[in-house]
Amino acid sequence: IIEENEMLRTGIKAVDYYVPEKVVTNDDLSTIVETNDEWIASRTGIRRRHLSTGENTSEFCIEVGKKLLSKTNTNPEDIDLIIVATITSDYSTPSTACLVQGALGCVNAWAFDLSAACSGFVYALSVADKFVKSGQYKKVLVFGSETLSKIVDWTDRATCVLFGDGAGGALVEPSEDSGVIDEDMHSKGEDGLKLTGGERKVRNMVSNPEEENKNYLEMDGRAIFNFATKTVPKSVSILLERNNLTVDDIKYIVPHQANSRIIEVVAKKLKTTMDKFFIDVDEFGNTSAASIPIALGHMDSKGLIQKGDYIIITGFGGGLTWGSTLIKW
To answer: How many CB atoms lie within 10 A of CB 273?
Structure first.
């Protein structure tokens, strides 16, 4: 099968996104922690974020999935595989992907979750790419979805101002003239504790540690900033050099929407302008695994990506993980 499909690519058939209706502005946050709009916006670029009033991670995916199936006139029974990238699943088990599979009626699909934090969608697309290129799987739904508000300490102004909820996704299928061209993927587990959330210590009849679990997101902000601004330009440059492209050949670089300051440094290191990057962190905040597919769906809704355009998506975050993908639309 692999030999017969050496020239097969994983094409992006459709992208879309969903965010909860409730918008929380920086001014709203100033009523619960000591902060203000100018302080948040000047340091992060974030002006507002969408927060769940009860919808969970799987429900965001389900809404995106309905859109993708509808706009491509795809029968749910034709979906072969569902992958959900998330660090805020509804349950430890069942997986979020299985809940989505059941709700969408994709009875012939198998489903699983993938945990790579803010690199999650890039990782999940990489996995989907290999399944499609095997020749055995024709239609795969790939989601990034988060309800980060569940694991944010709303008394900690260093983190609560950053995060939002929502989901984005893509329907991918075999293509001969477009799709995933190349990737650059990495992990650095030795620095994994620079960004943590949802710790679960061993507690049982023979083990009762004195330390409490650290249930909320905790981050060494300076370390993550330095990590991102070092690894992302290098990763993007690797793809450009390996494929004989320059940054001018790329319509958009779509980064994980963590912080506008990070993107500014990345742009400078790549010797390009901020116009080369699609940025919507001001509207949605940091949505971890959901940020890149939300951005792609947002771009598509504005008609910013046309057939034949080259884009690079690049994620970075907890794990530590990072990765970039070159795509021909």
So the answer is: 10
Parallel/antiparallel/unpaired status of strands 23-25 and 48-50? antiparallel
Residues tagged active-site: 118, 256, 286
pLDDT tens for residues 154-184?
A: 999 889 999 999 999 999 999 988 999 999 9
Residue-wise pLDDT for 100-156, tens only, equals: 999 999 999 999 999 999 999 999 999 999 999 999 999 999 999 999 999 999 999
Per the structure block, which two tokens stand in for 62? 């389900």
Q: What is the pTM of this model?
A: 0.94
